[in-house]
Amino acid sequence: MNRELEYMFVKRARVWIPDAEEVWKSAELTKDYKNGDASLQLMLEDGTNIEHTLDPKTKNLPYLRNPDILVGENDLTALSYLHEPAVLHNLKVRFIDSKLIYTYCGIVLVAINPYEPLQIYGTDIINAYSGQNMGDMDPHIFAVAEEAYKQMARDERNQSIIVSGESGAGKTVSAKYAMRYFATVSGAASEANVEEKVLASNPIMEAIGNAKTTRNDNSSRFGKYIEIGFDNRYRIIGANMRTYLLEKSRVVFQADEERNYHIFYQLCASSHLPEFKILNLSRANDFLYTRQGHSPVIEGVDDTKELRNTRHAFTLLGINESYQMGLFQVLAAILHLGNVEIKDRDSDSSVIAPNNRHLMAFCELVGVAYQDMSHWLCHRKLKTTSETYIKPLPRLQATNARDALSKHIYAKLFNWIVEHVNKALITNIKQHSFIGVLDIYGFETFEINSFEQFCINYANEKLQQQFNMHVFKLEQEEYMREQIPWTLIDFYDNQPCINLIEAKMGILDLLDEECKMPRGSDDSWAQKLYNTHLKTCSLFEKPRMSNRAFIIQHFADKVEYQCDGFLEKNKDTVNEEQIHVLKASKFDLLVELFRDGEKATSPTGQVPGTGGRTRLSIKPDKGREKSSKDHKKTVGCQFRNSLQMLMETLNATTPHYVRCIKPNDFKMAFSFDPKRAVQQLRACGVLETIRISAAGFPSRWTYQEFFSRYRVLMKQKDVLSDKKLTCRNVLEKLVQDQDKYQFGKTKIFFRAGQVAYLEKLRADKLRAACIRIQKTIRCWLARKKYLRMRSAAITIQRFTRGYQARCLAKFMRRTQAATIIQKYQRMVVERKRYRQKQAAALAMQTILRAYMARQKYQMLLREHKAVIIQKRIRGWLARCWYKRCLESIVILQCCIRRMRARQELKKLKIEARSVEHFKKLNKGMENKIMQLQRKIDEQHKDNRLLNERLSGLETSYTTESEKMRGELSRLRGYEEEAKNKTNQVSSLLEELERVKKELSTTQQEKKTIEDWAQTYRSEMEKMVSELKEQNGSLKKEKDDLNRSIQEQSQQMTAKMARAIAEETQQLETDLNEERSRYQNLLTEHLRLEEKYDDLKEAMVLSSNKPGHRRTDSTHSSNESEYTYNSEYAEMEEGSRAGEDVTRGIDTSLTLKLQKRLTELEQEKQSLRNELENKEDQFQRARARDNAEFKKARGAELEYESLKRQELESENKKMRHDLADMRRSLLGNAATSAGAPGSPAYKVLLDQLNASCEELEVRKEEVLILRSQLVSQKEAMHHKETMTEPSVSVQDVSKLKDSDEIKQAYIGLKDTNRSPQFMRKPLEVNDLLSRLRSAAPDFHKLNEDGELWLVNQGLKETIRLLEHQLQTQRRTHDSEVEVMRGELQSVKEENSRQQQLLAQNLQLPPEARIEASLQHEITRLTNENLELLAEDPAASREARVVILRRMVDLMEQLEKQDRTIRKLKKQLKVYSKRIGEMGAGQTEGQTSPGQMVEEPIHPVNIPRREKDFQGMLEYKKEDELKLVKNLILELKPRGVAVNLIPGLPAYILFMCLRHADYVNDDQKVRTLLTSTINSIKKILKKRGDDFETVSFWLANTCRFLHCLKQYSGDDAFMKHNTSRQNEHCLSNFDLAEYRQVISDLAIQIYQQLIKCMENILQPMIVSAMLEHETIQGVSGVKPTGLRKRTSSIADEGTYTLDSILRQLSAFHSTMCQHGTDPELIKQVVKQQFYIIGAVTLNNLLLRKDMCSWSKGMQIRYNVSQLEEWLRDKGLMLCGAKETLEPLIQAAQLLQVKKKTDEDAEAICSMCQALTTAQIVKVLNLYTPVNEFEERVSVAFIRTIQTRLRDRCESPQLLMDTKVIYPVTFPFTPSSLALETVQIPGSLNLGFLTRV
Questions:
Q1: Greater confidence, 1186 or 399?
Q2: Which of 94, 1208, 1621, 1662 is the least buried, fewest Cβ under 10 Å from its Cβ?
Q3: Sequence-distant contacts of 37-45: CB under 8 A, at least 24 apart
């Protein structure tokens, strides 16, 4: 101990010393304390040095101050030093600096009255504390209420909340907020709004039981204990109130600055109202009972408004207007009675003046006789055994009797109101448990204390005893639980004081005995007290200067009581004759007030439905009238009995304590008077709690927390795997005295001061570590500075030397430059001289050389011309010789060749007679022809080359001649010009002389002009400069104007952009608000529906007679058999049963619910009407656009019709030509069946016939499409004239877009190529009948621009047909031309062949071949001879032509072969295509492409699979089975994993499609109704299962999208395939059902959000705030009795990974269920908003979480959440923005908070936080270590000043119940309905695919 004292009481240690003004004052040791010192050297906070002398007897040292990190703790028991100054200072710091009014002190909540309204009691605060552990949140009255509520539900034990304190400390408000909390979090078990009634009792009781005192403007002048009853589901079912010791004397007397009860002033303030005229009231100052305090008005209180609130509360509790007016009559009568003036008749009697105005008003109001009342106010009846006397009363006694009657009437009225309030708060539901709220007066001591103070202090003695025992019991249980040796703790026991008051022969006993004495008086009673207790009881004393008073030593203080009035107040007597007069009143309410107890229902009787408990009241028992006063209970006796019952009730419950403290006596906001606070802390038992805790082991740490906090005091070798053993070893080393701590099972217990000792060791260790770090850092900084200086010196040297070097280099450069300049200057002079000489020499050389050149040129020119003449003559001579030689040679060659040719001809004629020679000749002739042709080509080529060369030579000669002629003419011109120049020289010399003269004259004139020009130039320059200046100024002005215009334009643009952005944002906000309001209305509607269903169930249960009761299983099965037809019956039954239910329900509540339901329906209908109006406007606008488009399309349609006619005519012409050609080909083919090439023609004819068939089909298609266009025009005209379209052929026009036209076109093609159509190719009626059968599918064609889509589709189809027809026409023309040429050649060849055959057939077979060959030789010879005879050259050319023709014929033959092969392939392709399309020829019919003689080969035609239409058929009786198997009994897990997403939605829609297809509106309606009701039922049954809710949200949205996608609306069909467009609904418009299903989806979404919130809510605070994601950053501070959740991750602790895993599970589940991505984004955004809001709210309500290290943890956690968003690709969904307030709060915890610049930075940074939140965070900021600093009050005020202009909500917490309005963006499905397969596991075998 000495070692610790020496360690703690050292220099700079801080202590507390007593002070007369501030109670305790802080000081700091300036010198170390040594054992044995008689004094301490201290320095106060203001710098004053003092010497504090120690008590020489006790040697007690002053109290040590706690470390700064412990100051401001939520729990006083967390302080290391538990003593009075520490408690007082902690409360002061929290109250003044942090503006926190609540603080825990163990199990007690200390509440300091702030004397100003605080925004900490809203619904958001209630929601934040709901479900939280008491130690996890900052201290609050809601935390105590939540703890009581939780323990009631957990322990099945009744609870009590005991609220005590001085008058003005805030007891009533605290009790009121506790009851409000219970009413909010628990709700009501019925529709009677019991919670509202419980809260409504407060204004009534405040009006009749509260009054203004010098200490409190709303002081409760009675005690009350309210039991709030709960059912087995812990919902409020009712309440009951007990009252104690109403201060009746206040009715007739008030001290200065005080008021009577509020209700009197409320009536006087409302006396001007018409209904109060009969009360004859006026101002409060006009009545004696309301003007004695001289303070009729309370500042800031409107008594008229308060009366309205009181009357509303009466109405809510079922007290109607007539009863209310009766109550007000009684209260007004009391005021009038107080103004009745009683005068002295004589010394022993008194009299009331006749016709006293106030007495007459009293009698009129209460309905009694004026004479009787005036008589008995001044007289009294005395009864003896034999006679009865009427005795007059003196004026003083009569006045006292009048006042006694007023008090008695008011007490009766008070009890009657309490009784009826209890009746209104009691229901018939059986009470399971209750929570009691005791609002009772605290310990009171005044200058004059009377009977009321005595009873109050007596009650507080009993409560303090109960409190001490409870605290002692809790301490003992804690020690036993941790298995720590229990030693008795000495605590103050006030049982002797209680015995002094209530024991036998105690003060109350003696008082009752004295009241029974005939001549008992206050003096005699005082003497009995002195004689009995003065010497026997140390707690009883007698004042020195008085014999009519006594002193009692209470637990809080000594109190002196004056004996005057004790007996009278204890007797509480009133004149019985006056009571008889009142009982005889004609006023029913007054008679009811004074009715006998056995006839009236009183609060003391048993109340049905309360479990049989007895309700006690302090009013006397008047059940039996007895004349003997021995049997009347005194007030003291009644109070003792009721107090005893109260103590029994409290002992049977678990108590919770709230101690209210009054900070000052002047009602100043946030002003703290230490003297008054210490006085109340001593009186309310808070310091006793501290003393009991300090006597044992007040500081308690878990092993993990101790290890985490004091890990710095351990060495590495001390850390073991077992944390307990590690903590033991460390503590044994750190604390030598083992009595200072104890090891429990889960905690370590420390004596007071040990935590401070350990904190000091920890701080010293950290300080040493900081010094080491500082030393290292300073060394590093110094070295860095040295290196920087060294580097700077080197740099300076480098730059200096560089400068010097540069100077030297500059000098050298200058010297060199001078030399170079000199060199170049001399060089220039020399070069100038040289160039002058060179120029002169060059001039002479030029003249000489020019002369010589001219001479040489003349000579060369003459020689060149002579050479040209010679060349031309010699060339002419050579050409003449060449031509003569060439002609001679050619003639000679011709003669020789002619001779040789004749010789060769003779040989050929001889050889031509044999066949073999003819063949060889032909063969050689071919070769020779080729050779000759080649030679001719070569000769032609040479000839061309020679001709080209000759032409080139001629061209060059001509060019050269022209050139020479030009040169000659030019030279002649030069010669003539030279002659002319010679003649001009003389004239020029003369002219030169004349010019010289003129030049001198001109020079003089020039000089004059130059002078003038100089002057003019100067003037012009001056003028130009001025103009430039003006121009510059104008330009500047222009630039300024342009700049200003540009800035204005930019500003206007920015302003317009901002305005547009703001307007857009406002519109978006309005839209979101409207959407949110609508969705909230849906939620409210759903809640009312659920309540209605609960009422129906309750009605059914209550209406069932004893006997067989339907079980849950049968009930659910019957519910599942719901159909549309049974709705009416259920509604009728519900209406009949509702009548029975409403008999037992409050009428006002029923009307209120009906009114609310009507309002909701009207609002919903108005929203729908508004939506319909907007849709109508949109449709009208679109219709106008369609009308304009129709006009523009008219011309196009006419043009297309003309074009189609032209195409048809051309098609007919082509068809006619093809028919002619076919006939000719068939005729020729018949005659030449055996001729070569005939099979090719057959194939060609087959191909042509197939083409004809294709053309026929195309023609039919064109005709059908043309009929569609015609019918479309007729339908358009018909729809404009008729409202209801008829079913006819014109319905074909109701196809909706291009995709549908294409589908129709493909369908027509398929139909044309079907077997049925091929049998009857020209029957179009069949197609039209099919189109007529599908007419109901197109009853909504021309809406929303569908006509334009139809025209577009037709246009595309026509273009396709045109292209195909043109292609075929071109192919046909080319083929026809080819065939015509070939046909002609074939005809000629055929005729020759026929003649040859006719001749050959007459010869024998051997001669046929020779004849044919001979014929061919003869033909060829003839042709050759003919050609040779005519012209040999032509013969050669003919041979070449023949050969080329032969080659061409061979090529044509090859081409025909290729064409044959190609046509065969095309024939195969066509036959294959015909087989695929299922087409074929009928039996016995010949194909146009086949010959009659050839048989028809059978073709294998495959059959196509059945084409499903994407519909499911079911019977009406199977509808319940469908709903049951597909919705009620479906397991989402199997469907989500094994099947396609949204399968139930697809199945339901396919069933709906079939019902629409068969046009069964009843089936459609029942299916949709059953589906919606079944989904609601499954959600009601399994609404807490996230997987189920997510599954049905995805399927409901998919069902909604299917209804949109297949609705036929153009807006929803953009992404459909043509096949999907065929599946659109045809008969019913389900837009209203889409709205219903959308509302259902909104409800499911909200249910999903609630489900997720329930799952995430327990994780958020633990994971985001409490768990240390970054280990070692946060330090665990010492905690008090209210242990907080540990930040160390235990097995059951949620971490951030838990949230991330849960979010991933949510995301994967929704993805598996096929939820729309946009909807997933909205869900994630809502999830992150909940996380951010809950985290921020808990941060704002937890002081221990507001630290720098916790800010780092939060920012790290937020970054992990953002990383999760990034991984899932959800960064743009808006979820990150919802975390912005939390991010800014974390940044606020980490930023610097000292200077004005810091304040400015905080204001600009925290845009997402409100001012209240910023100030709250700054107030709550708590250092975890001694090295951190708190935020100063001045800095917080600076922040408030800077943020005062913000327009924002004063709400502190974020609303965690906010649900963003959800939207369901249309997401079409690419899944084809006909491909949907129904698995057998769904048990839907009764469905048939259609």
A1: 399
A2: 1208
A3: 40/9, 40/15, 42/15, 42/17
